[in-house]
Design goal:
Elements lengths: L2 H7 L2 E5 L8 E6 L2 E7 L5 E5 L13 E3 L2 E3 L6 E2 L5 E3 L14 E7 L2 E6 L8 H13 L7 E4 L6
Antiparallel strand pairs: 1-10, 2-3, 2-11, 3-4, 4-9, 5-6, 6-7, 7-8, 9-10
This protein binds FE2/S2 (inorganic) cluster.
FE2/S2 (inorganic) cluster (FES) binds next to loops.
Amino acid sequence: MELHYVFEERFVVGGWSTEFEAGKLHARTIINQPLVFMRKEDGTLIDMTDRCPHRWAPLSMGRIESGTLRCMYLGVRFGADGRCVEVPGQEKIPSALKVRTFAVIERHKWAWIRPRENIRTFGDAERRSTADAYRSGRSTTVRIKVRSPNAYS
Ligand code: FES
């Protein structure tokens, strides 16, 4: 099974729920995808591509501001849905300036992620197919790399 398929079509574990503390950014590389997790004050866990669409700076080196994420390269700010909400020094916000976001579902102490366009309910069918894949040997072990914020310095 191709890893790209696994990432795009399956729920993939992003980490233990307890790893994602509120008010901090958490960088992960999962199946070669640089991701940043952010837990909002209301407890919602957000997952985005860890690349600012402006100049590709890692958003995990940014800052959380009222449930939004500010890139510290030139200060562009993104909402939890990935849309740009502020460009310093200009009023017009380009609608194309978006970060890819992922659906996050927390079940059984894990945070599961999936591309938002592929989201569907994480229910019995998903659990069964995961268990069946494991029993039949079709399961795939995926390594998760935890990046420290200063990995880019
Ligand atoms: S790279 Fe993020 S604001 Fe420019």
